[in-house]
């Protein structure tokens, strides 16, 4: 009888890949710069304990930690065949655009203004116990 893969198992595998990539990038950066673990953690606004957990691959950083590391350290993270970072082109030069002419995800989010964002919240479910959040983003063409 063949085993069926469940989505939760795939998520675990990709999360392990992300942890390994973060571990490599964080360790590479702090050692190359000659920083202590405490100094590196302070630069991105986290505790030394959290930094060590990222280096051990025991926890996955939240998006704001990855964003701060990309901004502060100029690193790029490759995950699930996508590379992301802040304002660095694929050839390592700093700038607002990617080499292929597309803004990085974080640069695009930073460039948004209130007129480009539309948010709707609708109550859902019995007795309006839940809600639906719709976010629309209008990017300039």
Q: Which short descriptors sum up this protein?
A:
141 residues; 434 Repressor (Amino-terminal Domain); two-stranded antiparallel sheet; 4 strands; disordered N terminus
The helix content is: 40-55%
| Cross-sheet strand order for the largest sheet | 1-2
Number of domains: 1
Overall body shape: globular
Q: Which architecture name does CATH use?
A: Orthogonal Bundle
Kindly report how far apart the N and C termini lie: 52 Å
Quaternary structure type: single chain
Any idea what the CATH superfamily is called?
Answer: lambda repressor-like DNA-binding domains
Query: Which fold does the CATH topology refer to?
Result: 434 Repressor (Amino-terminal Domain)
Query: Using only CA atoms, what is the Rg?
Result: 19 Å
Structural class: alpha+beta
The H/E string reads HHHHEEHEE
Tell me how many strands there are. Answer: 4
Unreliable stretches covering 5 or more consecutive residues: 1-11, 88-100
Strand residue percentage: 15-25%
- Write down the CATH class: Mainly Alpha
